[in-house]
Design a protein that fits this description.
Length: about 200
């Protein structure tokens, strides 16, 4: 029996690569998943986070948009937790690869190829539910659009790929502040209005 991985392509509805130079975001939308936000908007949010943390480039990142069932299985297998979660990140590089002075990590690859940073798996079902029931946002008590919740989750997942964490109070404050800044920039770009 074959073991399932986050990049398992057997249950896909749509696969698409979006280029936001120097980034390639490989988006897999699972069959039956209806998106509340355009895929291009999610790719912009990911690219903005990668730019902000000065991730090694050129690089690719996988975004898998699934449902609660898929996230529950991954959460049990990889985290040892029961039940669905909203986002899981599977980084392929050590956090030190994203330090400002690290430069490009010494990873052998053919000339002209991209470094794969990792995969983010999001439960779109959970994002919609959290947003509509007032359990969204960074604090878990925000009622806003499902599109905003999804952008927050992909931004959060991208920062985890890049070595950011929220295990300590100071790390959480720094990560949340960066998310707010990134989402504010994205809102201004998306809506054409200044962020607040």
């Amino acid at each position: 029996m074959r073991r399932s991985t986050p990049r398992d392509r057997t249950h896909l509805g749509v696969t698409r690569s979006i280029y936001r130079p120097p980034w390639r975001i490989d988006v897999d939308v699972r069959q039956g998943v209806a998106l509340p936000a355009p895929v291009a908007s999610l790719a912009r949010a990911i690219a903005a986070a990668l730019d902000e943390v000065r991730a090694p480039a050129p690089a690719s990142l996988g975004l898998i948009l699934g449902d609660d069932r898929e996230l529950a299985a991954l959460n049990a297998e990889h985290m040892g937790h029961t039940g669905a979660t909203d986002v899981l990140s599977f980084p392929l590089l050590a956090p030190s690869a994203f330090e400002v002075d690290a430069g490009s990590p010494d990873v052998p690859r053919p000339p002209g190829s991209r470094l794969h940073l990792g995969d983010i798996v999001v439960s779109v079902e959970r994002a919609i539910d959290q947003a509509s029931t007032g359990r969204g946002g960074q604090t878990g008590d925000v009622r806003w659009s499902a599109a905003d919740e999804l952008r927050l989750l992909v931004t959060h997942g991208t920062l985890h790929i890049c070595g950011w964490d929220h295990a300590t109070t100071s790390d959480e404050r720094a990560m949340r502040a960066l998310e707010q800044r990134l989402l504010g920039k994205h809102q201004a770009v998306s809506s054409g209005s200044p962020s607040t």
